[in-house]
Amino acid sequence: MDFFHAMSEKRAVPHHRRFSVIEGQRKRWALGSAAVLCSLLVPATAAQASAGHAEVRASARTGSTGTGTVGTNAGSAAGGAQSQVADTAGSGYPRPAPRAYVVNQSSNDVSVIDTATNRVTATIPVGTSPFGIAIDPRHRRAYVTNHGSDDVSVIDTLTNRVTSTVAVGTGPFGVAVDERRGRVYVADDVGGTVSVINTANQTLAETVNVGGNPFGVAVDESRGRAYVTNIATNAVSVINTLTDQVSSTIPVGSTPVGVAVDPSGRKAFVTNLASNTVSVINTTGNTVSSTITVGASPYGIGLDPSRDRAYVANQGENTVSVINTSRNTVIASVPVGDAPLGVATLPARGRVYVTDLLSDDVSVIDASRNRKLTTVPVGAGPAGVAIG
């Protein structure tokens, strides 16, 4: 049992977390003196397991919620045809539209959405209680953290099949790819570490001790840094990706979970679940330069640099806050599904994909109008999402 799951007896509850679990009902969970909402998975009954549901609401969750990486993929494991879009590389031939990969905690799989049609074209089985996802566009791979089985599933996005499984630390949640250095960074919540995977051979290359229950992770390739949220210490650990050592620790808000880095490398944005804020980090000095008040229980965050926007999933009130990142102010609030968690942006098409944990779907937002366009049914308990 841990932050989100009461799954296994080997999971010890950290002393700073206290919660009561009533199957099928919603309960408040207390972290220290702050009452916040968090999503918990409990062992399912036979009937629930057959239906693919095993969660109760005490509210929240998404860790690998970064912007997602836009790439191109071809083919589908389910055999569905992929919609075609113009080839921006100038070859003159159409290519498949980017796909949104949605991690479903309770059904232990990944739903693949064709972003041109907003329909699920494939479902990929992965490990136990998967949560986070990150895309390596160069090698056409997706990395999925399996919180319940302490490993990472590596998906070939050309075939939509798992090609390897990498054992990591205990309780992995967030994940991010450093494409330039050929590394994948995995936040091991229960283990208090960050596992570093070598993408050349899909093996564990390094383990970095960060403590404080690491949760979300984002990589700044230009500066050679990985930013890791630590929910127990209300801080962000900064890892030098050249040495894989912690170089700095930045105090932020209460219960930091999601993190995203601006492509320019000048700012990092951190969602603070218990204080209902977003901390803006100046990456030059690694200090908080601004604090933005958003909705209740903010979790996932995605950036659209083309519009100077950040999108924050507020799990406690079923909305997405839209932030103008030039002014660091909230300019809109978009209603979405039940318990939004993960966020991924698709700037080229002006779309934002938000996972709704308790309604088992994905809300698609029109970024130009700040309104929900459609809802895509996916698997049970969708959490992390990435585009590639």
TrEMBL record:
Residues 58-93 are annotated as: Disordered. It comes from the Bacteria. Residues 70-86 have a biased composition (Low complexity). SUPFAM superfamilies: Nitrous oxide reductase, N-terminal domain. InterPro entries: Host-pathogen_enzymatic-act, N2O_reductase_N, WD40/YVTN_repeat-like_dom_sf, YVTN_b-propeller_repeat. This is 40-residue YVTN family beta-propeller repeat-containing protein. The lineage of its organism: Bacteria, Bacillati, Actinomycetota, Actinomycetes, Kitasatosporales.
